[in-house]
């Protein structure tokens, strides 16, 4: 959805121009809640196609699916043993996701931040492009790396979050007090990357705006503030500039322009996606070549980790 795109994917694409990047489809994270096996299988390919259609390039970056590189699960176990229960108990996302009935949440959901730390530390990543909601998990990854380094000597880089100034937290279109989320049952709350032009324009038209008619970027107008943030993130201009451009204009003028900007930018992604998703051989080739490269790097880190801990790896 648009939140993932502006919060994370857009930075994935820009970073690969100047850095060595690895991007993985996190299928092991996906199963922390039950996934229908057939759907999971197609979702892995669809997410890969979404990455490629959005501009990730398998010649520049290593693109793979997490479960194909067993090192992620192996390092996660080691980090489970480094992590303190109290650290995980502080994770707000678990509280949000598990809801009232946390006794019934999977253990995987509880310890998922350690798997995320493994995703990062396995490759000695220095920067991690994420949305603002992942800041706490990144902090945990840093704590785990520091604790491991302290116990067993310098091994991991300490990763920095790379969160966009604008777009790090995109809110729901209908209830802007909540984050835009893929699991939202009301499709009017989010814009999917594959929504067509009419749908995008309609959803933006229907998005909640606030009382009054001035186009101002203010906490008192959370609906409008969210739309201006999306606009700013797309157009690369500041909220203040947007306020100036729309002085004396109506909400409807602003929404019309915004809907069109989003539709124009997502249209080539949708066209490219349709081409890529129909070519399963290509997708599988990207994933298997990526897994091979990632496995090589992962093995190098893991053998060091095993040795430092004192394990015997035959
Ligand atoms: P998720 O879809 O929750 O697994 O998140 C994938 C990536 O998208 C993470 O880096 C999130 O921080 C980012 N992300 C998810 N939802 C949003 C949102 N509403 N606004 C900005 N970034 C987001």
Explain this structure.
The protein is mainly alpha-helical and 314 residues long. The protein contains 13 helices and 4 strands. The strands form 2 sheets. The chain has a two-stranded parallel sheet. Strands 3-4 form a two-stranded parallel sheet. Helix 8 (135-152) links the parallel strand 3 and strand 4 (160-162). It has helices spanning 2-15, 27-30, 37-53, 71-82, 85-89, 92-98, 107-121, 135-152, 197-206, 222-235, 239-245, 251-277, 280-309; strands spanning 22-25, 62-65, 127-129, 160-162. Bound molecules: adenosine monophosphate.
Percent of residues in beta strands? under 5%
**Are there runs of 5+ residues with pLDDT below 50, and where?**
none
User: What is the makeup of the main sheet?
Assistant: 2 strands, parallel
Looking at the chains present, what oligomeric state does this protein adopt?
Answer: single chain
